[in-house]
Automatic annotation (TrEMBL):
<dbReference type="GO" id="GO:0003723">
    <property type="term" value="F:RNA binding"/>
</dbReference>
<dbReference type="InterPro" id="IPR036555">
    <property type="entry name" value="NusA_N_sf"/>
</dbReference>
<comment type="subunit">
    <text>Monomer. Binds directly to the core enzyme of the DNA-dependent RNA polymerase and to nascent RNA.</text>
</comment>
<keyword id="KW-0889">Transcription antitermination</keyword>
<dbReference type="InterPro" id="IPR010213">
    <property type="entry name" value="TF_NusA"/>
</dbReference>
<comment type="function">
    <text>Participates in both transcription termination and antitermination.</text>
</comment>
<keyword id="KW-0694">RNA-binding</keyword>
<dbReference type="Pfam" id="PF13184">
    <property type="entry name" value="KH_NusA_1st"/>
</dbReference>
<dbReference type="InterPro" id="IPR004087">
    <property type="entry name" value="KH_dom"/>
</dbReference>
<feature type="domain" description="K Homology">
    <location>
        <begin position="307"/>
        <end position="384"/>
    </location>
</feature>
<dbReference type="InterPro" id="IPR009019">
    <property type="entry name" value="KH_sf_prok-type"/>
</dbReference>
<keyword id="KW-0804">Transcription</keyword>
<dbReference type="GO" id="GO:0031564">
    <property type="term" value="P:transcription antitermination"/>
</dbReference>
<dbReference type="InterPro" id="IPR015946">
    <property type="entry name" value="KH_dom-like_a/b"/>
</dbReference>
<dbReference type="GO" id="GO:0003700">
    <property type="term" value="F:DNA-binding transcription factor activity"/>
</dbReference>
<dbReference type="Pfam" id="PF26594">
    <property type="entry name" value="KH_NusA_2nd"/>
</dbReference>
<keyword id="KW-0806">Transcription termination</keyword>
Length: 410
């Protein structure tokens, strides 16, 4: 097989991988030099001439003519008799350039050449994909569902790049079918071996932030700044926003008339409840806003230890805590404070952990999961509602309530 014929046989890689011809030729030269080193021990006395326009490649070996019988290095020296077979007027001491054909390398070397070329092109392709998606980290990306697995969904973009959406990066209510388009942010890109692994996320706070940029022009234009986003994916989120233009109401601009602007974001996130809050450097005011929709009576703050004791009317407590304790937990994450809620005008309460001798720890933990840490907080609840919100049986809840009531009846 002639050199040019081999190069033409490699054209499939150029077409399949969208690799430019100049890059292909550079890879070819590198591959051929490796083959020459294996065959002759070195390659520095070889000239490889690549013509990307014609798709041609020539290999020339340069040797010095020596007298017959004095050849010590066959790769660098050629006998006078052999040299004159190339050109009859060669003399001792002159340089000879002789073209090397692929057949001179041997069939096994040619097969190795092809395999090495495939490997180099894949490596080049993977490096480009890695760089492309590394630049897209933190950005929204859309790809199509290709394969659904137990622990992840495999997506393909328009260029056939594989993107992984792991189960723990999916919103709990997400349900996708093959062929459906999925939006998320490129969370991370890693090279495992020579292959890039691209991870998409729909649960990262950054996804919600980028959705705000896409859907709300003032955020995209920089008139409104998103200060912080915290989420319980698919359940609830809090977004702190600010504007340097006093004429703009950042919350109103983000939410829109009757929630019109934020509706598409809520729908994308599986009806996630999104609270948009005005950011302020006044930490006490920020905590008050973060606990919305609850109305706070007073706050006692410890700025050094980042704790806040919040006093509320009894009917506001459940609003502050929120379903599953999401509201108070997200408020704490948003403000950076550990927030404790107290009921105004209620006689002294007792923490549930004080009943550890009578109530099992795992039962106390179930109440804590939904933000109920004191005896009276539990006693104020409806039994049926507690059955629905916890993994506890009705009989267990009634037994706990009996224990707690006895504490205040004594």
């Amino acid at each position: 097989m002639e050199n040019i014929a081999l190069i033409e046989s490699f054209s499939e890689f150029k077409d399949d991988k969208l690799i430019d011809r100049v890059t292909l030729m550079a890879i070819l030269e590198d591959v051929f030099r490796n083959a020459l080193k294996k065959k002759y021990g070195e390659d520095d006395n070889f000239d490889i001439i690549v013509n990307p326009d014609k798709g041609d490649l020539e290999i020339w070996r340069n040797r010095v003519v020596v007298a017959d019988g004095e050849v010590e290095d066959p790769n660098r020296e050629i006998s006078l008799t052999q040299a004159r077979k190339i050109e009859p007027d060669f003399e001792v001491g002159e340089d000879v350039s002789e073209e090397v054909k692929l057949v001179d390398l041997g069939r096994r070397a040619i097969l190795a050449l092809r395999q090495n070329l495939i490997s180099k092109i894949h490596e080049h392709d993977n490096t480009n994909i890695y760089k492309q998606f590394k630049d897209l980290e933190g950005e929204i990306y859309t790809a199509e569902v290709h394969h659904i697995r137990h622990r992840a969904i495999i997506l393909l973009d328009d260029e056939g790049n594989e993107i992984v959406l792991p189960k723990d990066r999916q919103i709990p209510s997400d349900f996708f079918r093959k062929g459906e388009n999925v939006r998320g942010i490129i969370e991370s890109v890693e090279l495992k071996g020579n292959k890039p692994t691209i991870i998409m996320s729909r649960t990262a706070p950054g996804f919600l932030e980028k959705l705000f940029e896409q859907e709300i022009p003032e955020v995209f234009d920089g008139l409104i700044t998103i200060k912080k986003v915290v989420r319980v994916p698919g359940e609830k989120a809090k977004v702190a926003v600010d504007s340097y233009d006093d004429r703009i109401d950042p919350v109103g601009a983000c939410v829109g008339m009757k929630g019109s602007r934020i509706h598409s974001i809520v729908r994308e996130l599986g009806n996630e409840n999104i609270d948009v809050i005005n950011y302020t450097n006044n930490e006490q005011l920020f905590i008050t806003r973060a606990l919305s929709p609850a109305k706070i009576t007073s706050i006692k703050m410890d700025e050094e230890n980042k704790t806040a004791e919040v006093m509320l009317k009894p009917e506001e407590v459940s609003k502050a805590i929120g379903r599953g304790g999401h509201n108070i937990r997200l408020a704490g994450q948003l403000t950076g404070y550990e927030i404790d809620v107290y009921r105004e005008g209620v006689e002294e309460d007792v923490e549930l952990k004080e009943f550890a001798d009578e109530i099992e720890d795992w039962v106390i933990a179930e109440f804590s999961k939904i933000g109920l840490d004191t005896a009276k907080a539990v006693l104020e609840q409806d039994v049926e509602d507690l059955v629905r919100r916890t993994d506890l049986e009705e009989e267990t809840i009634k037994d706990v309530m009996a224990v707690l009531r006895s504490e205040f009846e004594e």
